[in-house]
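User: Before I run my own analysis I want an independent prediction to cross-check against. Here's the chain; please return only the structure tokens and, at the end, one sentence I can use as a sanity check.
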Amino acid sequence: MITCSAPGKVYLFGEHAVVYGESAICCAVELRTKVHVNKANGVIIESVLGTTGLDFEIHPYVSHVIEKMRQFTDIEGVTIQIESELPVGSGLGSSAAVTIATIQALNLLYECGLSLEDIANTGHEIEKKVQGNASPTDTYVSTMGGVVMIPQRKKLQLLKCPIIIGNTNKFSSTKELVGNVAKLRSEFPSIIDPILANIGQMSILAEKYVNENDYRTIGRLMNVNQGLLDSIGVGSAELSALVYAARYSGAISAKITGAGGGGCMVALAENDNAMTIARAIEKAGGEAIITINTEEGVRLESLNG
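Assistant: Structure tokens:
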């Protein structure tokens, strides 16, 4: 048995705009999805969603990975067991993490010889197939780790401040929310296109401040990004409650991360007030997770389980 893991992510800047080719800055966080794989007589996929065979409804990402990897090697049967610290549909890149971890685990199990770039590209293909329209951000960051600017694929300085994630525990569909923004853009292009362009420009402007670890300026820009995301309809009352609870309790910044409509928000903190912010998020009705930026992307955890 081979076990691989891949990290989730949070957006500092650029969600939704990145779908249209604008820039985004995203960072891997030390919350991981582990995938255990072993050769077997048939296909068995096990997760919190249930136990299935090849199933494009319950386990779409993993099923598409198996189908795709059959182009590189002969996979007659395999057992895949998934365990994750990332809640599904939360904006933390759970689908990318399970996709990338599964690709790497099968890559190693069957000795396919795929490079990290191959894995990131294959993962993006699969996310596009499942979601209809997906940026390469999540799969690239989950593969490579660190802080990454997309589409430039440029590595930036690691964040050295605590990261607090607030989960509304309200499921949100990336496909649906991306579709809603696309519809709004098609109806009001002269209004929505400049908003998306400004979100992208914010990422380009913020590159300098990320590399200088200027968290105060990063935070001010993140807060502006939140306002622009609200303007294109991807906010929610639950997310706003957590965002403002974090800001009022001393967060450097707080904004949606991911598709929005539910899922999670992210806050940057000083080293001494992360717990205060986490408690404020919980008091406002969310689940708080304190984590850090990680330099490691997809990795081999074990060769025997």
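Sanity check: The first strand starts at residue 2 and ends at 13.
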